[in-house]
Amino acid sequence: MKVRKKIKKLSAVIMTFAMLFGLLPMLGCGITAKADYNPVKMYSVDTTFSRYGITTRNIYIQVDASSAANKQVYVHYELVNEDEWQDAQASFVTKLDDNTEIWKATVSGIITGQFAIKYVGDGQVYWDNNNGNNYAYDDILGTANVSAQRLRSSLDGYSLYVAVKNLAYNKVVRVRYTYDNWATYQDADLTYSYTLTGTNNEIWGTTLSIPSSTSGFQFCVYYQVNGQTYWDNNFGSNYDSSYYRAY
To answer: What is the pTM of this model?
Structure first.
């Protein structure tokens, strides 16, 4: 009898521990949840045209190259606030060294509206909607830390503006340009212009005085901060005078 009672007590103790440890995941004690996987992110935006309330924007999207064999990428957007939402399909641009791909969609008229990124990979649908806030007009940078905006004409040459994430107060933003297909080149500093409203993105600018007789003008930009250097060289192709904003 004593042996049976001891066995019953031991069984009760074991059951108590089993129930207790079984409840721990329910109580969240020491349990680390795995982060949701999202293979798509907005990369950057540049504006090609803006006049009379119409704006044309190129929206670049970064996709995990190994996430699916069959990919469809869209910008899901509204032209004006509270209007009907539409899809603009993106096309493949290039593959980066970190096993991601860049896709691009062009959207016209999105000036007061908002947008999100939709990705369909092997039948699975993923979204980047800026953590539920959607992207707005001033959201130029997504995963990119630096993005050259399109050239504008000025009396002194070309006005160049560059968007950078404000990763630290001390930073250097420069443009590197050449007249002779990179046999030689020059670097020029950009200066702070303003911060985009509601974002952590800054706009820096400079004016490049390019001789009218010059042919083959090319450039790229780089951003030095926290001991790191980030480049925007048009995904390895560099920019030239055709990278121009109308109005």
So the answer is: 0.83
Q: Is 25 helix (H, G, I), strand (E, B) or coil?
A: helix
Q: Is the pLDDT of residue 191 over 80?
A: yes
Long-range CB contacts for residues 84-89, cutoff 8 Å, separation at least 24: 87/118
Q: Given the structure tokens 């990278």, which residue do they identify?
A: 243
- Run of H or E residues at 226: none
Name which of 217, 220, 218 is nearest 234 in CA terms. Answer: 220
- Can you give the C-alpha Rg of the chain in angstroms? 26
C-beta neighbour count of 50 within 10 angstroms: 14
User: Half-sphere exposure of residue 125, counting CA atoms within 13 Å on the CB side?
Assistant: 6
- The encoded tokens of residue 66 equal 């190994």
**How many angstroms separate the CA atoms of 160 and 149, rounded?**
7
Structure tokens given for 42? 């907005």
Nearest Cα to Cα of residue 59 among 115, 98, 125:
115
Phi and psi, residue 237, nearest 5°: -100, -10
